[in-house]
Amino acid sequence: MATATTERLFDELACVLGQDLEGTCRRNEPLSKHTSFRIGGPAALWVEAESLADIRRVHEVAACHELALTVVGRGTNILASDAGFEGICLALGSHFRSCAVDPEQRSLTAGAGMLLARLVQEAQSAGLAGLEFATGIPGTLGGALAGNVGTRLEWIGPLVREVTVYVSHDGLQRLRGADISWHYRRSSLRGAAVILEARLALIPDDPQLIAQRIDGALAHRKATQPLFVPNAGSVFKNPEGVSVGALIEKVGMKGACQGDAQVSELHGNFIVNRGAAQAQDVVKLITEIRDKVQTNYGIELTPEIRFLGSFDER
Known about the structure:
Number of helices: 7
Order of helices and strands: HEEHEEEEEHEHEEEEEEHHEEEHE
Low-confidence stretches: none
Helix content: 25-40%
Structural class: alpha+beta
Shape: globular
Largest sheet: 5 strands, antiparallel
Distance between the termini: 20 Å
Strand order of the largest sheet: 6-7-13-9-10
């Protein structure tokens, strides 16, 4: 819980960063405005960086005052605490949303702040295939790289040629895709640095054929996932060879409610916000699901969503 001293410190830093940055700095910014769950208390400081200098400055301030610092994209896989986040939330502004196609190299280079949906469309327009699997997956390229997003059969890691990151105290680094550890729903990029840009290797193809595959993938997601109700995507990782959604349905949790939080009736591995859900409601559902699956099947489910702020350790 913030004390009067820390509140004064955050007030002062908000003024300092407001003057120093090309981007913006806001005090006590509701995280519910920046998460797809539409849940979350205030971030002590919310920064939208518009340059590398902004990112450096924010890291300097965080290190100097020993403040927690986390990077937030579009908040599409985050459950933010009802109490908020007592630190700095860093988001990438418009400067980090550019995209360039290199037909000769069969590659696409984009800023980490670019929406994944727009990236899919840019690749299609350029006649470059390979990203169709990402159709309908919300969030930014940076978040997609950190979480190695994808489907059961395809994910973004194998497409990556190189990634440019900013590491506190070390500055800019360019990493080869082959040197990054890619795992199911995570990568070695998670939490280690601020992802700034990536170059993806794609395959030339007929734009119309690519568009057809995109339309098919989107239709499938619309039919099987609650895309139009606030949620944070898949709640749990699928254990190898097992569908979490099926397990959740078998233990009778599909459609279960806590407050305004509900296990989706369309897909058991999604929890939706029916209007006024709080983080504690979602956590109660997550805990109940984990306990029932553990008791009935001996499988310990691992959350796929990120928890931002203070939560019960369990």
